[in-house]
């Protein structure tokens, strides 16, 4: 009887202690330049659209964020939707924008986060793809999407963005091309290197030169993704994505985030491109095959219809830009992003990846805290 009485006394004390910890956690401040999460509506800024939905919006999404393939721009679209729809993202608890990589994704990587018991709706950060594990983590019937890019252009972007020249030590780029065989298995931080798209998809580095295995893997990738977008056809990709996910066009307003300036991109001679093409042969095959599938989707969608849809997307984007920029004209992309961050209703469109992930983590932590309080009977 005495033990039972002690238990009754200690239970509310423990609950109060837990409540205090939870309250402290939810009161952590987000940086001043980020719009408050509680005040974010379904759309970051209202626009006028007569478009009607005839399908059910997809709320489960697995997005493979390829390196240097406009992934941050797409990620911003997905994070905005997740945030304003109270969806839970697969995220590590620590301040990282990766989950896994170089190891393949596994559920264990996110099992100890404060929000893991809520379940997951969306994967939208860098990982090394394991389709079965990601599908199990998301549950339900997710849409699976990714994006590819011409491998030569992707590597040029990788070379500049990740300061590849520092990794090469004293070698010039020409010397690097003359010694490509020495760099086939080497990767910056064990992640960045040859055939980056196949690597991100989870293909073994040791099999890059095995044509049969590459072909079988590419066919498998073709089947598991509902849509593989093409960076060189970005607007067309957005239109197809919109129709796959059945979200509003307002959800697909985008800025070019994390892109490199033209003057900083590596310039190659025809001979250098040929050498690099041979080295990236596996990714070249992947790109060609998946682009072929993409072009067929456009044919099925209809070219006239595609142009009409692109005009709708452009019109809504222009409405948002007009509201956010207060009539400013002929503005550069960098200045555009800075201006968007000044406008309370526009910040999410231009928010940097780390900042946005902090916002999402804060929202998910808050939902996890509320769920814990409900479990204790301390919240409705």
From TrEMBL:
The keyword Cell division does not apply. GO terms for cellular component: Golgi membrane. The lineage of its organism: Eukaryota, Metazoa, Ecdysozoa, Arthropoda, Crustacea. Belongs to the galactose-3-O-sulfotransferase family. Pfam families: Gal-3-0_sulfotr. Keywords: Glycoprotein, Golgi apparatus, Membrane, Signal-anchor, Transferase, Transmembrane, Transmembrane helix. It is a single-pass type II membrane protein. InterPro entries: Gal-3-0_sulfotransfrase (IPR009729), P-loop_NTPase (IPR027417). SUPFAM superfamilies: P-loop containing nucleoside triphosphate hydrolases. It is found in: Golgi apparatus membrane. This is Galactosylceramide sulfotransferase-like. One of its GO terms (molecular function) is galactosylceramide sulfotransferase activity. Gene3D superfamilies: P-loop containing nucleotide triphosphate hydrolases.
């Amino acid at each position: 009887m005495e033990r039972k009485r002690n238990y009754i006394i200690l239970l509310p004390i423990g609950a109060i202690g837990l409540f205090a910890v939870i309250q402290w956690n939810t009161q952590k401040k987000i940086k001043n330049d980020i719009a408050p999460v509680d005040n974010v509506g379904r759309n970051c800024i209202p626009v006028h659209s007569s478009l009607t939905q005839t399908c059910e919006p997809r709320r489960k999404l697995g997005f493979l964020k390829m390196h240097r393939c406009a992934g941050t721009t797409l990620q911003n679209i997905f994070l905005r939707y997740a945030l304003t729809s109270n969806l839970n993202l697969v995220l590590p608890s620590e301040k990282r924008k990766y989950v896994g990589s170089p190891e393949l994704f596994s559920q264990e990587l996110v099992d100890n986060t404060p929000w893991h018991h809520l379940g997951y709706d969306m994967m939208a950060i860098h990982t090394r793809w394991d389709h079965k594990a990601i599908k199990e983590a998301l549950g339900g019937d997710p849409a699976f999407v990714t994006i590819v890019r011409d491998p030569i252009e992707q590597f040029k972007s990788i070379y500049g963005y990740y300061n590849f020249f520092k990794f090469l030590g004293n070698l010039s780029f020409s010397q690097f091309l003359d010694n490509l065989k020495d760099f086939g298995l080497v990767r910056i931080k064990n992640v960045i290197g040859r055939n980056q798209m196949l690597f991100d998809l989870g293909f073994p580095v040791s099999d890059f030169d095995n044509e049969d295995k590459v072909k079988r893997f590419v066919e498998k990738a073709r089947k598991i993704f509902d849509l593989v977008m093409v960076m060189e056809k970005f607007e067309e990709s957005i239109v197809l994505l919109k129709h796959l996910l059945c979200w509003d066009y307002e959800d697909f307003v985008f800025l070019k985030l994390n892109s490199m300036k033209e003057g900083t991109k590596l310039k190659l001679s025809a001979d250098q491109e040929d050498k690099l093409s041979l080295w990236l042969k596996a990714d070249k095959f992947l790109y060609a095959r998946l682009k072929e599938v993409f072009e067929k989707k456009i044919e099925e969608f209809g070219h006239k219809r595609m142009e009409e849809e692109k005009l709708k997307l452009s019109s809504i984007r222009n409405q948002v830009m007009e509201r956010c920029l207060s009539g400013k004209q002929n503005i550069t992309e960098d200045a555009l992003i800075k201006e968007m961050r000044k406008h309370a209703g526009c910040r999410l469109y231009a928010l940097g990846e780390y900042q946005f992930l902090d916002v999402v983590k804060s929202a998910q932590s808050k939902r996890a805290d509320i769920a814990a309080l409900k479990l204790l009977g301390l919240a409705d």
